[in-house]
Amino acid sequence: MPNAAVVNPLPSWTMGLAAALLPFAILLVGAVIPAAPSYRFWCTAALMFAFLLVMGLAISGRPFGALINQRNLMSLSAFQSALWTIIVLAAYMTIVLTRIRKGVATPLAVGVPSELWMLLGITATSLVGAPLVLSTKVTKTPNPTSVEATAKATGESRDEIEKNRIGTLYSNPSMADARFTDMFQGDEVGNTAHVDLAKVQLFFFSLVLGFSYFAAVTASLASGELDSLPLLDKGAVALLGISHGGYLVSKAPDHSGANP
Fold it and tell me: 21, 30, 122, 194: which has the highest count of C-beta atoms within 10 A?
């Protein structure tokens, strides 16, 4: 992959101002704007997403910098964690601020289904567990045959791959080389040029369940429900948990003919 320097397109003071104002905008939308709760939920989620983009630009020079890991690759576990953080926090904040506006005596007493706690725990486990599983590979050396095959498949030179790799783990030279497709590729030098089906499965499970829950929150707020967040089906959470388990387990085997 070509190496390109990360250039921040905005002055630092502009991003600093945006980062400072966005949290106030989020509070303003929830507490002041006279609109339907479902509409304020959408606006709050959009502003949280914008805040994530601004932070990515300010810190890494890339809008989606929050999803780039230490190997300069887009991380699937970071994506699904960001997705659920925005949806759940935007929903909770919208309900709490709406209850305050209505004068509810205990505005923070919002019910959170146990299945939602389980889902957040699963996503957090993947976010922390994936690097832990891969850390066992950073002291190993890939087989020269694997390096040669990957060099041919990616169009890079063997020297480039050897220079940038971290143990048997494939790594980009800079954040500018991170791509959306990184989330679906293997982690090692030996399989980075292949599609990782465990990652594809987790991506679709996260996307479908996330947007379904987003729609459920919208419908719940539109109906006037302000006592709790919408329920999550136990079966859906179980399927997501299995998908996350497969995602983590698939990282454990050696895919590069590693030498200790």
Answer: 30
